[in-house]
């Protein structure tokens, strides 16, 4: 019984980080005329790093004529609310 409880606790602990949501805040630009925007986007859960987010966001933004300038940070769902007002129309748009 004790082994079963230990195994269950371990499985739950390992499953937690894998199920965590991942978001990135970024800056992008569009030329002629120059436009800049700050945004927040959801990215894949598998690798929640700025580098992985950059590879995922650049093509999404490019489809609408935006060039990704940089990924500022990656974070979990707990960081969404504090960034919502700053991102405005670009909050979870891409």
Assign the structural class, choosing from mainly alpha, mainly beta, alpha/beta, alpha+beta, or little secondary structure.
Answer: alpha+beta
Assembly form of the protein:
single chain
Poorly predicted ranges (pLDDT <50, ≥5 residues)? 4-18
Placed side by side, the strands forming the largest sheet appear as: 2-1-3
> Mean pLDDT, nearest integer?
86
Task: Give the overall silhouette.
Answer: globular
What does this entry look like structurally?
The chain is α+β, with helices and mostly antiparallel strands and 94 residues long. It has one domain. The chain is 41% helix and 29% strand. The protein has 3 helices and 3 strands. The protein has helices at residues 2-19, 50-62, 80-87; strands at 22-30, 35-43, 67-75. It has a 3-stranded antiparallel β-sheet with strand order 2-1-3, with helices on both faces. The N and C termini lie far apart (48 Å). Residues 4-18 have low confidence and may be disordered.
Helix/strand layout:
Layout (H helix, E strand, L loop, with lengths): L1 H18 L2 E9 L4 E9 L6 H13 L4 E9 L4 H8 L7
Antiparallel strand pairs: 1-2, 1-3
Task: Sum this structure up briefly.
The protein has 94 residues and is α+β, with helices and mostly antiparallel strands.
Keywords:
single chain, 94 residues, alpha+beta, three-stranded antiparallel beta sheet
């Amino acid at each position: 019984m004790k082994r079963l409880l230990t195994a269950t606790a371990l499985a739950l602990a390992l499953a937690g980080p894998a199920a965590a949501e991942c978001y990135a805040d970024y800056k992008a630009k569009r030329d002629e005329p120059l436009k800049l925007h700050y945004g927040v986007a959801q990215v894949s859960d598998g690798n929640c790093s700025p580098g992985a987010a950059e590879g995922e966001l650049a093509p999404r933004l490019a489809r609408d004529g935006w060039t990704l300038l940089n990924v500022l940070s990656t974070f979990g769902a707990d960081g969404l609310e504090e960034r919502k007002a700053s991102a405005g129309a670009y909050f979870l748009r891409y």
